[in-house]
Amino acid sequence: MRLRVEQAHGVFGALAAELGTAAVLVGDAVPMRNRCDWSGLEPATPLAVVRPVDAAGVSAAVRACRDAGLPFVPQGGLTGLCGGATPRAGWVAISMERMVGIEEIDAASSTMTVKAGTPLETIQRAAEEAGLYFPLDLGSRGSCAIGGNLSTNAGGNRVIRYGMARDLVLGLEVVLPDGTVLNSLNKLLKNNAGYDLKHLFIGSEGTLGIITRVVLRLYPKPLSTMSALCALPDYDAVLAFLAEARRGLGPLLSAFEVMWPDYWELVTERCGVRAPIGGGHGAYVLVEAQGTDEAADQPRFEGWLEGVLERGILADAAVAQSLAQTQAFWGLRDACADFVGVLGPHISYDVGLATGKLGAFTARCKAGLAAAIPGCESVYYGHIGDGNLHLVAWVPGLPLAEQPKHAMDTVVYGTIREMGGSISAEHGIGTLKKPWLPYARSEVEIALMRVLKSALDPAGLLNPGKVVG
Question: Which CATH architecture has domain 5-98?
């Protein structure tokens, strides 16, 4: 039986005595940041925020919550967009904010061992200083924590070459819902000794265990980066260009970002981002390649692009001649971060679909939103090389609380279901997308997810109500 709130405070006192007073924040000391993630859900003040410094401290917090019957939610950088880290009243937040740092960089095995609260950008810089490269990259790199990146199986800009977050992990340390510490800090690329347990926790959004330490896979540091911003007549040309990029650039291809005309017009006309090529085209692609031979890579890239131009696939193209120009090209793609200030309240979506179907999806979805919701506008862009599309929908002039989100969801996710896609390509399910999970997963799949949740968390105290709980 769960304790009443006043009884729970005795639990926190005992926990503070065990972990230190700085580790347990209660009442007015609970920071605003721990009350909600970036999902926009209504904030809720947890009974306490527990801030351990190691797996033993996380285990102690979990056991205390379990013994008291208190639900608890793990928190990292709190940059999630689906509510996976948002608490509810009467819960305890177990924050990784003090579990930061690089424990080891093993150049021989090309691995890095880090604590779960370490910001992604810190990991990227540490790898670079060691002459290596960690390819996971997100717009929230300075704020997001690696534990959260793994719990949502983050994607980002370079999935086409390096894969999702789960492809960059060799080992984990995890605290299970009963407080047991599972130490599986494997460094081996090849290890088929039984089940690969780390994949239970990567992408589970903190519902099956709390990730505390990670062994990451590193790559050689790229010595050259080439990029081009290209205009194309339509989506069929985009598919032809993608095939040319895969064939002509091979393993050098590191990003293939597509922007539809509505997105392009928004960022160049309303966001004020300067473009190196003109508008009026059917699609725009930012293609990037990374190599290890500065002298040879740029000429090879330019020669490949010239061949594509000669074959009539592209309508126009601009090639970056410096790192600053590459960053400027990416500024067009990353301008979506400014949409709040430009558009006002809006609803963002992250969906997945077979690459060949994305052109048809955008046309159907845009028409469907406009027909179902008077005045609704939408724009489309994404990591098309890996089948991940982002879209933003809004009714101008309406505050966020009055945006017809359910009607938008019905159109977007209904179209995704009809075309055999995923309602979440890289952001997770949390609570925001939970009602729509059957649109992307079968009854058998969801039932098995619930079996796993029940087996690992029979008391239902770890992040309850999220994903399938």
Answer: 2-Layer Sandwich (3.30)
CATH of domain 102-220: 3.30.465.10
Strands 347-352 and 388-394 come out as antiparallel
Provide the Cα torsion 38, 41, 42, 43; round to 10°. -30
Give the C-alpha separation, 294 to 102, whole Å. 30
The answer to whether 77 and 151 have CB atoms below 8 angstroms apart is no
DSSP class per residue in 343-402: H-S-EEEEEE--GGGHHHHHHHHHHHHHHHSTT-EEEEEEEGGGTEEEEEEE-TT--GGG
How far is the C-alpha of 270 from the C-alpha of 116, rounded, in Å? 39
Q: Which two tokens stand for residue 77?
A: 């950088």
Half-sphere exposure for 400 (CA within 13 Å, toward CB): 11
CATH class given for the domain over 224-336: alpha beta
Report which of 456, 466, 372, 368 is spatially closest to residue 424, judged by C-alpha positions. 466
Convert 183-194 to b/e letters by CB count within 10 Å (16 or more is b): ebbbbeeeeeee
What phi and psi, each to the nearest 5 degrees, are found at residue 216? -100, 150
Region 50-65 average pLDDT: 98
Residue 3 has pLDDT above 60, yes or no: no
The tokens describing 179, both together, are 């407080």
Asked if residue 248 has pLDDT above 50, the reply is: yes
How far is Cα 149 from Cα 145, in angstroms, rounded to an integer? 6
Domain 224-336 matches domain 344-427 at the CATH topology level: yes
Report the CATH number of the 344-427 domain.
3.30.70.2740
* Residue 75 β-bridge partners: 95
**Beta strands 92-95 and 72-75, pairing class:** parallel
Neighbours of 278 (CB within 10 A): 10
Interatomic CA distance for residues 171 and 160, integer angstroms: 22
Measured CA to CA in angstroms, residue 401 lies from 86, 252, 390 at distances of 18, 45, 21
As a dihedral over the C-alpha atoms of residue 78, residue 465, residue 11, residue 77, rounded to 10 degrees, the angle is: -10
Domain residue ranges of the chain, discontinuous segments joined by +:
5-98, 102-220, 224-336, 344-427
pLDDT in tens, 324-373: 999 999 999 988 888 888 899 999 999 999 999 999 999 999 999 999 99
Cβ partners under 8 Å of residue 455, min gap 6: none
End-to-end CA distance of the chain, in Å?
A: 19
